[in-house]
Each structure stands twice: as structure tokens, then as C-alpha cells.
Amino acid sequence: MPLSSRRMDIHISEFIEGSKKATGVTVIIDVFRAFSTACYAYDSGASRVIATGSIETAFELKKKYKNSVLAGERDERKIEGFDFGNSPTEIIKSNLSGQTLILTTTAGTNGLVNATRSDILLAGSIVNSGATARYINLLNPALVSLVAMGYQAIKTAEEDILCAKMISDILKGGKHDFSERIEELRTTSGSRFFNPLNIDFSPPTDFFLCTMRDRFDFALRAEKMKDGNINLIKMEL
């Protein structure tokens, strides 16, 4: 059974439209790769992760925050002038101790920025799905909105829908083994990581790093700042 006693209504939706309509405790899900990257940034020593919707704002934030670095993508590729792409592989090779990571992506971070109706906002991926569900159970909400952001926020992505189902399963007290379905991602939405033409910006290691279920024991709580950007706070469980 779930840790909470209250019956939860759990809704799964997609894309920016879903994030705009989401209410209650809302989880914006981006497995490939925004919120996996954010988790690995904290694991690599980052003191803070700030999510923003636009490239221009990211550059402005870098000027504002000392000892900060930029990470993100457009069309999967690292943005010109950024320190990192949206790639866990790049992040784990770096020592981010004490640094602020400023992250902007096509789908995930824009999902956070547009989730203006949520009571509590979280960022989820397969690598912290269990911790995210446990955190939600501690909150014991009546309504949970799981928003699968999809590929470029316009096309259904199997990995994001799967992550939503994994979180929902835990909240409902299920104990299903999703390992086979995670492995299947290698030949569906994750196949792009194994295309030799993409190796410079979407290496195969990103696939494996993004699909390590429960690699991290912390949730990412998203708090909107006065300037409209999102502070991703590491909530250890």
C-alpha cells in the first residue's frame, strides 16, 4: 500500500499544454535528458541548479550568479557559448563542486516554467523516480499531475510516459518490475543515442545514464523565483 492514507487522484498528461493545465502536486517529466542531467549535476557537486526557458535568460543568469556554468540544448545539440550540452555524460566528467548549473532545454525546463497552476512542482526522471514517488507520498496530496514532456515537447516519448507510469505504480502501492520496458527503450525512443551521426551530442552513455532506475535517492523540488526562473532544490530522502 502507499505510505499515504489519503486516496490520490493521479492524472497523466503531455507536453506544454499538459504543464499549463496541471494542478495539485505536479511532476514535470523529462527522462532524455533534462532532469537526468540535473540529477547528475548535483551528484557532480553542483551547489544549485536553476532552470530557465530561454537561451537569452540563461546568459543573463550566468552574469548574475558568480561561479556558474551553462548547460542545455536546442535540437539536442549544445547551445553555442554554453559550457555543457544537455548530457549526463558531459556532466559526470566534470567537477561542479560549489558551482551553480543554469539549465535550459526544449522540453523539460519549459515545462517547469509553464506549470503555473501547480501547488507543488517537482522535476522527475527514471533516475530519481522512486525518490520522487516517496516524496509525493510524504506530501499526501489529493491530486497528482504527471506531465510527460515528450520529444521536443511535441511528440510522445516512450521514456517519459513510462516514467509517469512507474511513479504512478509506486503511488498506487504497486511493485511492478519495469526493467524489460526500460530495456525496450533502447530500440524505440532511445535508439537515437546509438546512431553514429549523433555521437558528438547524444552519446550511447547518455542512454544508460538516463535509464538507471533509482540511481539517486533525492527528489527535485522546483521553486519559482521572483524573476520567473526555477530553482531546483535537492530533497534528500
Describe the secondary-structure layout.
Elements (H helix, E strand, L loop, with lengths): L8 E6 H7 L3 E5 L4 H10 L4 E4 L3 H10 L3 E7 L2 E2 L9 H5 L7 E5 L3 H7 L5 E5 L4 H11 L3 E6 L9 H14 L7 H6 L19 H7 L7 E7 L5 E7 L1
Parallel strand pairs: 1-8, 2-7, 2-8, 3-6, 4-6
Antiparallel strand pairs: 3-10, 4-5, 7-9, 9-10
Helix pairs in contact: 1-5, 6-7
- Output the CATH topology: putative 2-phosphosulfolactate phosphatase
Distance between the termini: 19 Å
Helix/strand order, N-terminal first: EHEHEHEEHEHEHEHHHEE
**What form results from the Cα inertia axes?**
globular
| Share of residues in helices | 25-40%
CATH architecture: Alpha-Beta Complex
List the total number of helices.
9
Summarize the structure.
This protein is α/β, with parallel strands linked by helices and 237 residues long.
How would you explain this protein's 3D organization?
The protein has 237 residues and is of the alpha/beta class. It has a single domain (9-236), classed as putative 2-phosphosulfolactate phosphatase, CATH 3.90.1560.10. The protein has nine helices and ten strands. The protein has helices at 15-21, 34-43, 55-64, 88-92, 108-114, 129-139, 158-171, 179-184, 204-210, and strands spanning 9-14, 25-29, 48-51, 68-74, 77-78, 100-104, 120-124, 143-148, 218-224, 230-236. A ten-stranded mixed sheet has the order 1-8-2-7-9-10-3-6-4-5, with helices on both faces. A hairpin with a 2-residue loop joins β4 and β5 (77-78). α1 runs parallel beside α5. It is globular, with a radius of gyration of 16 Å.
